[in-house]
Write a sequence for this structure.
């Protein structure tokens, strides 16, 4: 056990690409926590997807021993948190487990929208914050301007910000000293009953569920019988370790310390993040304030391209949800796509990450339907129904009105692109709430429908600002609007997988775009095919795919019979990938392209 | 009666060499600096002997020298092959012995020799009726040379056919009308008119993939060209008896009809395919493609064939279906059922007939003019459940 005044617990707040993972790597490296030969980039991002995309999805932790200039050796616990808005709930709970934060800002780029949201969470959690300006060695670095910006935008004194280059290692010793001298040690009472916060949990194929805890009071030892205060479940601690970042067993964890344990827990769902853990006997009486569980806000259908893969998909989804209690699933059938799952996610990135993991780690080709949000249907009989899937929309005559989720979006953008951003937000039915400046960067706050954001908003924002805008949002409220279900008909037959909820005023434009896209995606048939978008019985957009005119093979002699026969046999097999709508066959690829979120 | 007898029995012999490779061609053709015609002669004769032992006593209707450019074969080689064939199988009184020829001067000098060897019909690769397009197609001859070659051929052979390739780069409907008019003036009783197809593995395919080969006709324009072709050929008394083949009634290529009518044919030479019904099993044969390897194997007394595959009833039905619907005479429904063991899907036939793609008599099923143009889609519809 470590003396409280020799412990510092902290997290790092930064925008994507501002150097958070590189700084974490340097801290680990410089203190010799990991042998040089074992060092790899983004040490704490263990998932392939995290390394590839340069993002952090799961919170992670490392215990660093640091011999400080005062001659004493400190234990530094770094909790690396996700930077993306989708995982804001992970950030907020990790923040509660530590006392301070390093605020890393790129010395040429300045403060971004995500930084802002995360730094406010740190302030909410009562953190001491040490500003760190990174990439100070780049020619474009303007430390003075960025210091001023931090003061203007965040209201934080940045005069003694630490200047570093995480890439070259410049200034890293100053960061380590600042952690020790400027961040407060944790508080806690070793003699009080055990009170530990469940910070995170994940599934490990060898160990089962691994639980990360921060000890508030008391001592946790291997073999202890502990109780989860929310679920009342009791477990025996099999293994107690700290992460360096590999697991190193430890005899006990005392106040202020962060570590992990295993206790033969089968599913991540059995552990509630934010729960309080105490001893089975002589436990504490008062629990820590819990966290609100994260609610899925974006929904889409996931279908196997090959119907025979359905069972594999079901297994894979079960395995993934062992580790991620935040995404919800239920079975879904679609005339177009067969059997699959309707899944709920914390946001679009979360959706993409899960989809990527299913495809890569479980090797299943997936069709992802257009993402949608949860609409609230206020029925004439006074009840309220949640609509997760436009295909399930009841008859309009039973509906009084429809509400949709709205978000508060914060966008930071260089002045030059402001006009385009405002136009984009207006086009997406946004209501401007605030517009302010920090130097040449504007910060706009918009009230936007989430449904408009899940439909290629990021892409549009990126493209109109050439990637210079940053964006963050939080769900604000449900509000009524004039929403309708738009169906797509191919040769007069409705195609359920393509129906979507849209605002009445935007229905024509969306319908037109969809039918034009489909006209290019559906192959010609021997007859002409009308492709229509409709609201109820009213057609709002129409294209006609003309009939095929000629496809006969010019030459077919003795040697060609075998070739031609094989082709037909292949087409027979390829039939699996075609979906029949009346007389029309639509290749699955057409659905994939039509529904593809432009990522 | 065995089923193959509906189509007859023929022999295809493949000569794998050309003077140069045309950029559209995906046949098994090669350019070689030196060709030992004597070695090829020994090998062809050995193969005729081997095949003859498996099909003794069958009445042979037709022989076809294809390639490659078989008009580059020495007339003595062709004579030796025909003599050996005659010695191996009984032949009909008036057998059709066709040789594919290029209209180059070297080849033309051999026409008399081919005639004396026993060739009765030539099929000439004229391909286009203007010099610029001939060059674009990689052809070595000019229109004037082609016309001269054609005259020589007419003097030597009773039956002369020629090929044209249309739906070429930058070819308008009117340009094709004029070109086909000229061709029909020249034609005697048989004409093969192929729309240019970009085949995988050809120089054109490479160019096409790299965004080259601009100005190819749209599907609509090639459909109009096809329709115009039918119209002009019908008017000239050369209706289509097959998708791309036109003839005066009675002058059809008997050899090619064997393929489309599901007859048996022996394939000899590198890459040659065959169909042989032996003891009620129909075998698909295919020889090794490489000319050097083929020659080496035959020289060593081994069979140059890849493993033969026995066709199932379903495959036999499928082959008959996809070949016979190319013919204006169509598919014999009883024969199909007998071959495949099942009848065609009546509902699909009705749907396709309602769409105007098929027509049916008591005994036969035909692709209509509209149906023949989209025959691949029609076949897919009939075959894919």
């Amino acid at each position: 056990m470590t003396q409280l005044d020799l412990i510092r617990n902290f997290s790092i707040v930064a925008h994507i690409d501002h150097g958070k993972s590189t700084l974490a790597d340097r801290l680990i490296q410089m203190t010799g926590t990991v042998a040089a030969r074992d060092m790899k980039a983004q040490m704490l991002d263990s998932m392939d997807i995290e390394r590839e995309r340069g993002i952090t999805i799961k919170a992670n932790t490392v215990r660093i021993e640091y011999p400080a200039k005062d001659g004493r050796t400190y234990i530094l616990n770094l909790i690396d948190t996700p930077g993306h808005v989708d995982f804001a709930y992970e950030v907020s709970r990790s923040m509660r487990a530590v006392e301070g934060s390093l605020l890393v800002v790129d010395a040429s780029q300045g403060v971004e929208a995500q930084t802002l949201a995360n730094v406010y969470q740190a302030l909410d959690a009562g953190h001491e914050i040490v500003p760190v300006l990174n990439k100070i060695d780049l020619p474009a670095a303007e430390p003075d301007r960025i210091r001023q910006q931090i003061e203007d935008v965040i209201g934080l004194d940045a005069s003694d910000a630490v200047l570093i280059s995480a890439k070259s290692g410049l200034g890293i010793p100053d960061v380590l000293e600042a952690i020790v001298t400027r961040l407060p040690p944790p508080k806690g009472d070793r003699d009080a009953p055990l009170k530990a916060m469940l910070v995170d949990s994940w599934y490990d194929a060898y160990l089962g569920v691994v639980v990360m805890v921060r000890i508030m009071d008391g001592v946790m030892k291997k073999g202890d019988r502990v109780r989860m205060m929310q679920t009342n479940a009791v477990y025996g601690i099999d293994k107690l370790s700290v992460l360096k970042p590999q697991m190193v067993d430890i005899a006990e964890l005392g106040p202020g310390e962060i570590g992990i344990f295993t206790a033969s827990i089968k599913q991540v769902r059995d552990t509630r993040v934010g729960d309080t853990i105490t001893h089975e006997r002589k436990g504490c009486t008062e629990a820590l304030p819990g966290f609100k569980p994260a609610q899925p806000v974006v929904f889409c259908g996931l279908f196997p391209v090959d119907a025979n893969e359905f069972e594999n998909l079901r297994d894979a989804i079960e395995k993934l949800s062992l580790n991620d209690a935040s995404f919800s699933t239920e079975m879904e059938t679609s005339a177009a796509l067969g059997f699959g799952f309707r899944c709920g996610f914390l946001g679009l990135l979360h959706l993409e990450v899960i989809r990527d993991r299913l495809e890569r780690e479980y090797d299943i080709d997936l069709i992802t339907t257009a993402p949608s949000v949860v609409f609230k249907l206020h029925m004439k009989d006074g009840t309220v129904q949640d609509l997760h899937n436009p295909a399930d929309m009841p008859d309009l005559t039973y509906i009084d009105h429809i509400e949709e989720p709205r978000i508060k979006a914060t966008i930071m953008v260089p002045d030059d692109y402001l006009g385009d951003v405002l136009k984009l937000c207006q086009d997406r039915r946004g209501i401007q709430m605030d517009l302010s400046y920090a130097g040449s960067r504007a910060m706009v706050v918009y009230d936007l429908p989430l449904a408009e954001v899940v439909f290629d908003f990021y892409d549009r924002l990126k493209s109109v600002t050439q990637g210079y805008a940053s964006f963050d949002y939080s769900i604000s409220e449900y509000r009524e609007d004039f929403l309708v279900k738009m169906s797509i008909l191919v040769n007069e037959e409705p195609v359920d997988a393509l129906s979507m909820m849209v605002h009445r005023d935007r229905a024509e434009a969306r319908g037109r775009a969809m039918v034009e896209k489909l006209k290019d995606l559906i192959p010609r048939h021997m007859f002409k095919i009308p492709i229509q978008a409709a609201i109820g019985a009213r057609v709002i957009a129409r294209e006609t795919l003309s009939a095929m005119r000629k496809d006969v093979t010019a030459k077919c002699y003795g040697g060609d019979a075998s070739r031609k026969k094989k082709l037909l046999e292949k087409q027979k097999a390829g039939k699996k990938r075609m979906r029949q709508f009346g007389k029309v066959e639509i290749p699955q690829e057409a659905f994939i392209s039509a529904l593809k979120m432009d990522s | 009666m065995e089923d193959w007898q509906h189509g007859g029995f023929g022999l295809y012999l493949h000569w794998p060499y050309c003077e140069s490779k045309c950029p559209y061609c995906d046949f098994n053709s090669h350019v070689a600096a030196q060709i030992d015609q004597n070695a090829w002669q020994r090998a062809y004769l050995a193969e005729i002997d081997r095949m003859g032992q498996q099909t003794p006593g069958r009445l042979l209707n037709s022989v076809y020298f294809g390639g490659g450019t078989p008009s580059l074969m020495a007339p003595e080689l062709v004579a030796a092959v025909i003599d050996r064939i005659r010695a191996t199988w009984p032949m009909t009184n008036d057998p059709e012995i066709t040789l594919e020829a290029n209209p180059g001067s070297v080849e033309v000098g051999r026409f008399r020799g081919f005639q004396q060897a026993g060739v009765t019909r030539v099929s000439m690769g004229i391909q286009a009726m203007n010099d610029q397009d001939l060059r674009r197609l990689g052809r070595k001859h000019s229109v004037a040379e082609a016309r001269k070659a054609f005259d020589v051929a007419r003097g030597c052979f009773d039956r002369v056919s020629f090929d044209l390739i249309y739906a070429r780069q930058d070819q308008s409907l009117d340009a094709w009308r004029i070109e086909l008019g000229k061709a029909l003036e020249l034609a005697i009783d048989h004409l093969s008119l192929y729309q240019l197809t970009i085949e995988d593995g050809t120089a054109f395919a490479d160019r096409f993939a790299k965004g080259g080969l601009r100005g190819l006709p749209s599907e609509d324009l090639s459909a109009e060209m096809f329709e115009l072709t039918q119209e002009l050929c019908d008017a000239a008394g050369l209706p289509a008896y097959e998708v791309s083949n036109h003839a005066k009634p009675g002058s059809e290529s008997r050899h090619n009809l064997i393929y489309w009518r599901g007859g048996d044919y022996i394939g000899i030479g590198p890459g040659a395919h065959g169909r042989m019904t032996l003891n009620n099993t129909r075998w698909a044969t295919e020889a090794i493609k490489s000319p050097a390897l083929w020659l080496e194997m035959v020289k060593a007394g081994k069979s140059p064939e890849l493993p033969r595959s026995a066709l199932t009833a379903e495959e036999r039905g499928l082959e008959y279906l996809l070949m016979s619907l190319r013919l204006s005479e169509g598919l014999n429904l009883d024969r199909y059922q007998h071959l495949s063991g099942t009848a065609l899907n009546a509902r699909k036939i009705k749907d396709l007939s309602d769409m105007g793609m098929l027509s049916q008599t008591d005994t036969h099923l035909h692709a209509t003019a509209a149906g023949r143009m989209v025959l691949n889609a029609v076949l897919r519809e009939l075959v894919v459940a």
User: Anything to note?
Assistant: The two ends of chain A are 48 Å apart (CA to CA). The interface with chain B takes residues 524-527, 548-559, 561-562, 564-565, 568-569, 571-572, 575, 583 of chain A (CB under 8 Å). The mean pLDDT of chain A is 86.
